[in-house]
Amino acid sequence: MLHIVECRHCYHAGRFKANDVAKVVGWDKPLETIRFRCKRCGRKDTEVKTQFIDRDHTFKGYFWVLQNARSY
Ligand SMILES: [Zn+2]
Fold it and tell me: Residue 33 C-alpha to ligand 1 middle, in angstroms?
């Protein structure tokens, strides 16, 4: 499963593996409470969607760095 994160400010979009996000913020953290920060413009005004994929290793994408995940 992937989280698609799109910046509402500059429309930069990125993807996280849900597993990686959960490792950082915890498995019981609701997705809407996680704050991602845009790598390009530094803003936190992001929209997050969830996408299901069959196999992780077939996925080639650009991953944002998960920053300030605990400072929501
Ligand atoms: Zn941005």
Answer: 19
